[in-house]
């Protein structure tokens, strides 16, 4: 919320009041049968938000992810949200999933206080695993999760603390590192920063100008990996976008200004058979800022891949500058000029 206000002068910002940070919201609730529902403020577009939230919340409660119901259809008249709600800017893993983790943890701690007297234990001796709540070192001294989770609905009078009912928890999370811009327009534009390293080996056909990728290696450090399959899916999707920008996609206009690539008959995009196999490497350096140590990976290869391919082609041709996309006619022109 802060970096967009750098378009204003310091005086204008002072009059308007400081803008900083960005909230993420999540609610975790228990139903009368002990079921768990998580509601988040980010609507997915195929990235797998429900899978990850079910996994994150399930780990907190010792439940299988399949038993967690995840609601992503945000209703601003009903659900917890803020002006920053939405699916953008790689905020899901670090902010939204982290908020869900915090909400589930608070609810778990309340359940531990409810179960402890029934098991003759202290709350810090309670563990959650395999759908049960019980003693850390004694699996026999335990209760089913659903029974304890339903207590606040059916028997609130039995709670050790009437104010400690475990029904739902809502968390709004924002990192303190996202401060408002100072008078010099200095600001952290992001709470966390992922890192990517790409290596590309290419081969160029002297007769056709076609560029073939012989080897492509990409390594990402996006903090803690929450789900490896979805993580790699994001990498492959970003790579496909980057490959299109590097070798295929171009807006072409005629001399009269007419747009000539307005359909997919004329606008080239990579097909499945055009995308080479990737070697994906991982490095996990957990963020000290986010609740789960996660950062974000969604936009990585979409930005790094065009640069990496361009550098590889420039190196192969012995030139200092190339223009994307590197279509065969453009590469042939470079070959005639420099090789």
Quick overview of this protein structure:
By secondary structure, the chain is of the alpha+beta class. 32% of the residues lie in helices and 18% in strands.
Textual characterization of the structure:
With 339 residues, the protein is α+β, with helices and mostly antiparallel strands. It has 2 domains: 22-173, 2-Layer Sandwich (Aldehyde Oxidoreductase, domain 4), CATH 3.30.365; 195-338, Aldehyde oxidase/xanthine dehydrogenase, molybdopterin binding domain (Aldehyde Oxidoreductase, domain 4, 2-Layer Sandwich), CATH 3.30.365.10. The chain has 7 helices and 10 strands. The strands form 3 sheets. A 4-stranded mixed sheet has the order 3-2-1-7, with helices on one face. A hairpin with a 2-residue loop joins β5 and β6. The protein is elongated, with a radius of gyration of 26 Å.
Radius of gyration: 26 Å
For CATH, the homologous superfamily of the largest domain is named as Aldehyde oxidase/xanthine dehydrogenase, molybdopterin binding domain
Strand order of the largest sheet: 3-2-1-7
Structural class: alpha+beta
The CATH class of the largest domain, by name, is: Alpha Beta
What is the second-level CATH architecture of the largest domain? 2-Layer Sandwich
Index terms:
single chain, alpha+beta, Aldehyde Oxidoreductase, domain 4, 2 domains, 3-stranded antiparallel β-sheet, elongated
